[in-house]
Amino acid sequence: MSFPWAHEYTPSHPFMKWMDEKLPLPRLVYNSVGSGYPVPRNLNYFWNFGFLALACLGIQIVTGVILAMHYAANAGVAFDSVEHIMRDVNWGWMLRYAHANGASAFFVVIYIHIFRGFFYGSYKAPREMVWLLGVVIFLLMMATAFMGYVLPWGQMSFWGAKVITGLFSAIPLVGEPLQQWLLGGFAPDNASLNRFFSLHYLLPFVIVGVVVLHIWALHIPGSSNPTGVEVKSESDTVPFYPYYIAKDGWAMGLFAFLYCAMLFFFPNALGHPDNYVPANPMSTPAHIVPEWYFWPFYAILRAFTSDFFFIPAKLMGVLAMFSAILVWFFLPWLDRSPVRSGSYRPAFKKFFIILLIDVLILGYCGGAPAAEPYVMISQIAAIYYFAHFLIILPIVSSIERPDPLPFSITEAVLGSDEQAALAPAE
Amino acid sequence: MAEEAITDAPELATGDGVRRRDFINLAAVSAAGVAGVSLLVPLISQMAPSADVLAESSTEVDISAIQPGQAIKSIFRKQPVFIRNLTPKEIAEANAVPISSLRDPQTLAERTKEGKENWLITMGVCTHLGCVPLGAGEGEIKGEFGGYFCPCHGSAYDTAARIRKGPAPKNLEVPTYEFTSDTVVKIG
Fold first, then answer.
1. pLDDT confidence bin for A7, thresholds 50/70/90
2. What ipTM was assigned to the predicted interfaces of this complex?
3. Coil, strand, or helix at residue B79?
4. pLDDT of residue A313
5. Do A270 and A314 fall within a single domain?
6. Which phi and psi (to 5°) does residue B169 adopt?
7. In this predicted model, what pLDDT tens digit does every residue of A277-314 receive, in sequence order?
8. Rounded Cα–Cα distance for residues A68 and A80 (Å)
9. Between chains, do A185 and B75 touch, taking CB under 8 Å as contact?
10. Residues A242, A146: one domain?
11. Is residue A278 part of a domain?
12. I need a surface site. Which of A199, A276, A373, A384 has the fewest CB within 10 A?
């Protein structure tokens, strides 16, 4: 679907005409990311992060496929093969650092993309499906990143695999057999490493598939925008090509600059020295932490230190950690406010900023040792996190008095819209 | 033939009753469904521990060199197992604890073999999230209850390796084992 004023694809070259009759792939591209896709004219820089996320996925797939040409998924040689990539393979050091830091860059981009959605109400009707598919992509990303971190088979890889699969052992009755089934043994070993490699290679392509659905679902109502007011007429939009292709290209240049600075000057800043020690099943590193992008959820996991009614603390922590993401699936129905954009919601805006700070605090605590005062801070922050989604959002959306909305995107941009004079006041 | 055709005809026309085709349809789709679901069995069970992994599920350890107060780390199912020779003082400490005060109530006698109460054999796997607790090696801290201490999230175990403090829900697991002689123990 598109707006009636969308440019129509009209091939002029005989070959393109022939192609359009046999397989209208150029037409699909034209209508998806070309001149045939009208986009609100007022998108701000936060709307660049979808494109950047796609770019990150591309970087990860290209570097990953290359690394797989040199990596050996066998517990006996995996660690050495990674060192082989770092020391012997031509440009291997760069490709591995690009992949490892690419994962971090991907999560930076995706967290901004998600919080953009939180603030501007991108999850609201008619874009619920776009949001739901996005949450699925995020879950797939987390699984892929976790399994990728296991592959170098260092100490953090091994103990990360043990602790994360240990989460499943908290499930009553089936927990222990489930953990053994996931690992293919009683502890992480060759069987675990092999299957993690297989899935780590597979899941990015599953993500590509869901990304296609995500974009497809987005293109049915069309992109949202910072005012949250739906597109009304042609003057509200500009074609995706060349306007947003150019803007995304600019953002890509800035992203590449920061990414390369990380990659070439601080390639290990986000890693853990312990992962340059080969996996040792007999000795646990003193301070196990996951990668930074899991810290907020790890803090929620560790926040449960005593039994909750009849549910053991360990199981409660696991349930809370998964619920912290699963609650996002219900977001379109928890926030009932008819106003989409946070810019016109004075109360919501304040709670959004508190949520952002709350998640940053959780992230800090997740990376800190499991000791006081961090445990108590995580407990308070975890309670607030769930309260935001389950209590604050529904209440705020029902009692809040939103600011007046502009008549149209054009009016928001230019200060007036000639159609506003013709239309009855809203 | 002619007779059958006549009796079938009204049912075919109105769609009433059970036709032979309905039965075949139902049976074929059900059979395909059962066959499809049964394909999941090999696809899922291939991920379970393989025969060679299961074959490593027993191990024999010579314990003759372990003096009272000492412990060794051995390997069972590729995981650490702690074999500890308790001193009379440690045994007395473990027996002095009121059972009702424990998170996972068990006596030392229940966690050891009869007549071999000084031999405490447990997995070296914290029941919280699977880290290896400290306390078995020479010079490692044993925590405030004199048994084991997990550095990951601060679980402390007593001299019977029972959970006393911290997030772990259970006592350190006692694997299946038997003394094949006075100096050899077979785990698994």
1. very high
2. 0.76
3. strand
4. 75
5. no
6. -85, -25
7. 999 988 888 788 899 999 999 999 888 877 666 777 77
8. 14
9. no
10. yes
11. yes
12. A373
